[in-house]
Amino acid sequence: MVKMNMVQALNLALEQEMTRDNSVIVLGEDVGVDGGVFRVTDGLYDKFGGERVIDTPLAESTIFGGAIGMAMAGLKPVTEMQFSGFAYFMLAQLEGHASRYRSRTHGLWSVPLVVRMPYGGAVRALEHHSESREATFAHFPGVKVVIPSTPRNARALLAASIRDPDPVVFMEPKRSYRAFREEVPEEEEVLEIGKAQVVQQGSDLTVVAWGAMMRSTLQAVAAIQERRSVSIELIDLLTISPMDGNTIVSSVEKTGRCLVVQEAPKSFGVASEIIAKINDKALLSLEAPVKRVTHYDVVTPYFGRELMFIPDVERISRGIEETLDF
Amino acid sequence: MPLHEIGNYSISFLQVLDEHGNLDEELEPELSEEQLIRVYRSMVLAREVDQRMLNLQRQGRMGTFAPCTGQEAAVCGPTLAMTPKDWFVCSFRETPGRLMRGETILQTFLYYNGYEEGNLLPPASRTLPVSVPVSTQIPHAVGIAYAMKYRGEKDSAVVAFFGDGGTSQGDFHEALNFASLWRVPVVFICQNNQWAISVPRNKQSHSKTLAQKAIAYDMPGIQVDGNDALAMYKATREALDNAYVGEGPTLIEAITYRLLMHTTSDDPKKYRSEEEVQEWWQRDPIPRLKRYLERKGIWNELIQAEMDDEIKKEIEAAVKELEQKTDFKPDAPFDHVFGTPHQEIEEQRADFLANLAEFGKKGAAHG
What we know:
The complex is a heterodimer of chains A (about 325) and B (about 375).
Chain A: E1 2-4, H1 6-20, E2 24-28, H2 44-48, E3 53-55, H3 60-72, E4 76-80, H4 91-98, H5 101-104, E5 114-119, H6 134-138, E6 144-146, H7 151-163, E7 168-173, E8 182-184, E9 197-200, E10 205-209, H8 213-227, E11 232-236, E12 239-241, H9 245-255, E13 258-262, H10 270-282, E14 291-294, H11 303-306, H12 313-325
Parallel strand pairs in A: 2-3, 2-4, 4-5, 5-7, 6-7, 10-11, 10-13, 13-14
Antiparallel strand pairs in A: 1-8, 6-12, 9-11
Chain B: E1 12-14, H1 33-58, H2 72-81, E2 87-89, H3 95-100, H4 105-112, H5 138-150, E3 158-163, H6 170-182, E4 186-192, E5 195-196, E6 199-200, H7 201-204, H8 213-216, E7 221-225, H9 229-244, E8 250-255, H10 274-281, H11 285-295, H12 301-324, H13 332-335, H14 343-359
Parallel strand pairs in B: 1-7, 2-3, 3-4, 4-8, 7-8
Antiparallel strand pairs in B: 5-6
């Protein structure tokens, strides 16, 4: 076990997957010589060369559309969108083709590729560099959406995404890139896509979070548990789509109360979908309305104001108490 | 049937002042003393603003920004050629031109310090806010030009700025195609600063020049020494004059260089040599224009010192204003989601304000 941050853990996954399978290639803007603007692909160009680690022209649509062709012809492309805010250029290719090939051809063709993208706020960034738009991608059937929260699960989920037979949108919470370190096993580790993780077991309340919100949520849960005697179950969603509804529903059947923490705007988001799933399958177990702590339905403010909008420990703690005390 | 030539194309390069400040008198544009001093001062101001912002950024008093050092002539030359009736459509490395178009130093500072208040130039300024996603602003320029043509506006056009990396985006090609087809008044200015973050110009496109991309869309294309303010002025003047009389769009490729980092988050040592950077410092556009002004007898060290002092004071006044400004309305984002009120937004605003009252106001994340 070596302690590493999320950037190093993602780098390890890429390096190991590229060593394991020579059809795996990396392409995107500045991923080669520069090693990626966040250094996630650092060293790969030197190790694997420019044919497998491609510095592309500045054109997200063809980075991704080209990768579709590569995938259909037997390669395993791992593309990088420099920031999720620039991924909209590739949506026509994702919605129009990557998501549909399997279904369109009844399984004769498929598009196994990964598109990695840093997302999320609280890093003092310029416009378009702070959004959480996971719901946008999750709304395309045929596309898997994965969001890790720690170095270890980031490494194991990226490896799984590369081995997955379908297009995977792999969203990296950039606020967590260097925020903390965690022990990561040197030998390969793969986490199943489509499974949430119960990070902490409890019986009074279920809290669901993902991405960078996991950290604030863990802090809020710890703070509450210090001042009152409650047992909180905490679920890290990990895969946004296809969503692991069973883990959430079983938990809520046990606790009867639930809070969802989401960095994205309130409406039309992943939290809404979680609540709908609970409504479908566990309504009669509920002792309180399922609460959401989220961003607001505003255009993401520039960083001068952003911390007032992103859910923080205080807002999450209050949400927990209100749900417990309902 | 034998093959026969159906087209023959070439691309020219324009330079008026060479890197040693030698003038090609035949190409010298007609500019008044006032205009020359305006463009020179704008370039020096932009350089000093860059330096001050860099310094503030390193102290955590300014957010990430894209320095313009080295590219002042490529932006200020064209902006000098524009009138307030022309539209200025830029990406994120045109601060020198934005300041010429009426943006205050304080606004620039506010923008890069995380406040939309930096974007408050009124629409009548015909100067669009900064556009970050590469090349997405170019289609806007074409649409604006269409609207001008539709309304029968005379003596006005749109100038659209973007970088070498931007020419790889579909939006660039689509916009040029529309502009040519519609024959609308646009001047496309590619600031080819040789680097798209870490990707050098020769890995961006196999084309020998970026100007030649004009040929595909059947519009005039010219390559210009982008560190020569006079050449940039002259090329833009001609392109604008053509656009004004209904002759349609032009593509100008400015050969320049990004002397500093892509943004303050970037470390260029990782991908380019110090020798290359030093070579380009020798072609610095500012001393080149200064020598020209001196030779014309309209500039000397005394005037320079007065101007430097004035610029320094202007910048320091803006820094002071920035750091004293605290009257940012926390819930302003709720005011501007839509042009019409909506109950859902107002409910969320109430929740936001209640949180603020309970937990206190939070500033920006730490740098």
